Amino acid sequence: MDVDRPGPGEELNDGAVTVPRQAATVIVLRGGSQTLEILLVQRNPAQRFMGGAWVFPGGAVDAHEGEGDSAHRAAAVRELAEEAAIEGVDPAQLVRFSQWITPPEVKIRFDTHFFLAPLPEGAQPRIDGDECVDLGWFTPQDALASYAEGKLLLVFPTIKHFEQLSAFATADELLAFATGREVVAVTPRVVMSGEQARILLPGEPGYDTAPATS
After folding, report:
1. Are 25 and 101 in contact (CB under 8 A)?
2. Is 55 in contact with 9 (CB distance < 8 Å)?
3. CA-closest candidate to residue 60, choices 110, 104, 13
4. Is 1 a residue whose pLDDT tops 50?
5. For residue 88, how many C-alpha atoms fall within 13 Å in the half-sphere facing its CB?
6. Which of 47, 49, 84, 207 could form a disulfide with 9 if both were Cys (CB 3.0 to 4.6 A apart)?
7. What's residue 214's pLDDT?
8. CB atoms < 10 A from the CB of 31, how many?
9. Alpha-carbon distance 165 to 209, whole Å?
10. Which residue from 201, 2, 188, 178 is spatially nearest to 94, judged by alpha carbons?
11. Angle between the 140-148 and 156-165 helix axes, to the nearest 10 degrees?
């Protein structure tokens, strides 16, 4: 799937590179050994940053949560409770899946750690109606199809995660794959061609020769 521009509110930076803020996200799964469905919440359209986008629950690490892996896990569980009212997730049981760092060419940057977690038994996700205004369960294929049809606003990292997740038939299969897997940070680059901004991933043509951002 061709995605050639930053998401809503992701303004390009014309000054010094911004230090990315630490953040954590939870990809909540349901379906067990039968299927794979993933929870998305819709950000309030009134928000300047990614307003209206459908995202995995998550947010920035708070100062009191410390640093390192334990801080990301604490933030992930806290944000999951705040944005989707899902309680009872053990931070130690979260499965690391990926790490994405916002391109240096973008003004607002995050170093986001993505975790997998099955929906706790009996949990009923709910949105707060303020920061998040809607939620839904999607198979990776349905989410990508809805995006392609213009029915679902997704940002670049979410799209790329769904493309990867579409290779798995069930939640159990995905968790088995990810458990114990080494996670390598991904930092996309934004390359300008005239007035058009294009996002490149490591390994794609032009990534290593993109002009350095200072």
Report:
1. no
2. no
3. 110
4. no
5. 9
6. 49
7. 53
8. 20
9. 29
10. 178
11. 140
Domain layout of the chain by residue ranges: 21-200
pLDDT in tens, 134-189: 999 999 999 999 999 999 999 999 999 999 999 999 999 999 999 999 999 999 98
This prediction has a pTM of 0.90
Q: Which two tokens stand for residue 124?
A: 């009923």
Give the mean pLDDT of the chain: 90
State phi, psi for 162 to the nearest 5 degrees. -65, -35
User: By the 8 A CB rule, do 38 and 143 touch?
Assistant: yes
Which burial class, exposed, middle or buried, applies to 139 when counting CB atoms under 10 A from its CB (0-12, 13-18, 19+)? Answer: middle
Q: How far apart are CA 156 and CA 110, in angstroms?
A: 13
Kindly state the DSSP code that residue 213 receives in the 8-state scheme: P
- Write down the residue that tokens 């309680």 correspond to: 87
Q: Where are the beta strands (DSSP E) in the chain?
A: 21-30, 37-43, 54-55, 58-60, 95-101, 110-118, 132-138, 185-186, 189-193, 196-200
CATH of the structural domain 21-200, one choice from 3.30.572.10, 3.40.50.880, 3.90.79.10, 3.40.50.1100: 3.90.79.10
Residue carrying structure tokens 């940053």: 49
Nearest to 166 by CA among 135, 130, 142, 149: 142
